[in-house]
Amino acid sequence: MMKQKVNFFWFRRDLRLDDNTALFHALQSDLPVIPVFIFDDAILERLPQNDARVSFIYDSLQKINEELAKVQASILIKKGKTAEVWKSLVEEFDIQNVFFNKDYEPYAIKRDVDISALLKENNVGSFAFKDHVIFEEKEISKSDGLPYTIYTPYKNKWLEQYRILGSVAENDTQPFFANFAKNHYLFPQLSDIGFERSSIKVIPHNLSQIANYKETRDFPALDSTSYLSPHLRFGTVSVRKLVNWANRKNQTFLSELIWREFFIQILYSFPHVANRNFKSAYDGIEWQNNEDDFKRWCSGTTGYPMVDAGMRQLNKTGYMHNRVRMVVASFLCKHLLIDWQWGEAYFAEKLLDFELASNVGNWQWAAGTGCDAAPYFRVFNPEIQLKKFDEKGIYIRKWIPEFSLGYNKPMIDHAFARERAIATYKAGILK
């Protein structure tokens, strides 16, 4: 019996049916489309069994599957090594083409090159599309073709190019849902994938909370952020819709979306930043890397209320307010002289919105080792930050219930830590 010719759409970090570029193009083809998601062993093996992000991915896929059921279709869920999964799919189906959206992280780039080669060997076409960003790779570059390494000129060029477009077209996939292959694949239990449900939840995003974003974004007690970041990370929302909305409604918020693309471009152009300093001159810094100090930072017991509240919020919820992230990152690198890579790895483990480009970019910004980073002699004073941005102590009391009873003595004196950090950086920066 001959197998039906089909095309595949490969879900990755674009977990939505609406305004999904590669899916839109897949559904324009003249063959039935089977959507597939692969739980990649290479990623899963590094995660705890109750990882909250896996629960969120699972729930997002389930919502997609419920939508597909309305047109007698379903999503095919697989688990394993990605190459092995595609080898089995090529044998099982008569696949003509595979459509997917690009990912710009080093692991994903190599994976996609390998899978495209595997498909080609089996006479299967592969088509990759820009979806995760407005401008990708070298679309925003200097006049000499080199990538920007300073945010402000990148932003100006980005805005110039965006305004030439007028807005970014959004793809309406709904009219083409009839082109999904009619099938019913068994949707697995979370336990079938080897995971259990996390008690930590991803909060629904809410753009109405950022009406006064410019005035309120630095005050963690106001809880006036959008909670969009995990949704952007896993693509449950369209960046085109967000950018078009922000351009109409909130330029400050648009700037934050551009920062995200700036860091994605940096990682794409300079992949070494994932595990090395962007500025090699900083390679000579002698970090203290005291494990006991690191444990106190991780657990939120440094004696500095804003640092500790932030770390406790992270450990309990998977979130941390952006202003507080800057304070805790500066404290680790400057006060404790612990390599930014230790903090980056801890955030990667805990943050619901972990995205390699932004995580590395922001950590290197705080450490002073990155492109367009805070100068090495800028050392946040956690106590001044507390007075400026949580003067009434509402945020810290929420996460440190024992604060009113008298709080721990700071583990290190700020003035001493500042002088030590500046001296260490001065001695370590290579001439």
TrEMBL record:
Q: Is Flavoprotein one of the keywords?
A: yes
User: Which keywords annotate this record?
Assistant: Chromophore, FAD, Flavoprotein, Lyase
- Cofactor(s), names only, from the UniProt record: (6R)-5,10-methylene-5,6,7,8-tetrahydrofolate; FAD
The coiled-coil segments of this chain are: none
User: One MF term in GO for this entry?
Assistant: DNA binding
Question: Site Electron transfer via tryptophanyl radical: which residues?
Answer: 287, 340, 363
What top-level branch of life does the organism fall under?
Answer: Bacteria
Q: Where is the Photolyase/cryptochrome alpha/beta domain?
A: 5-134
**A GO BP entry:** response to light stimulus
EC class name? lyase
Q: InterPro entries given for it? A: Crypto/Photolyase_FAD-like_sf, Crypto/Photolyase_N_sf, Cryptochr/Photolyase_FAD-bd, Cryptochrome/DNA_photolyase_1, DNA_photolyase_1_CS_C, DNA_photolyase_N, Rossmann-like_a/b/a_fold
User: What Enzyme Commission number(s) appear in the record?
Assistant: 4.1.99.3
Q: Does the keyword Lyase apply?
A: yes
Family statement drawn from the similarity comment of this UniProt entry: Belongs to the DNA photolyase family.
Q: Where does FAD bind?
A: 213, 225-229, 253, 256-263
Q: How is the cofactor bound?
A: Binds 1 FAD per subunit.
One short Pfam family name for this protein?
A: DNA_photolyase
Name-wise, this protein is Deoxyribodipyrimidine photo-lyase
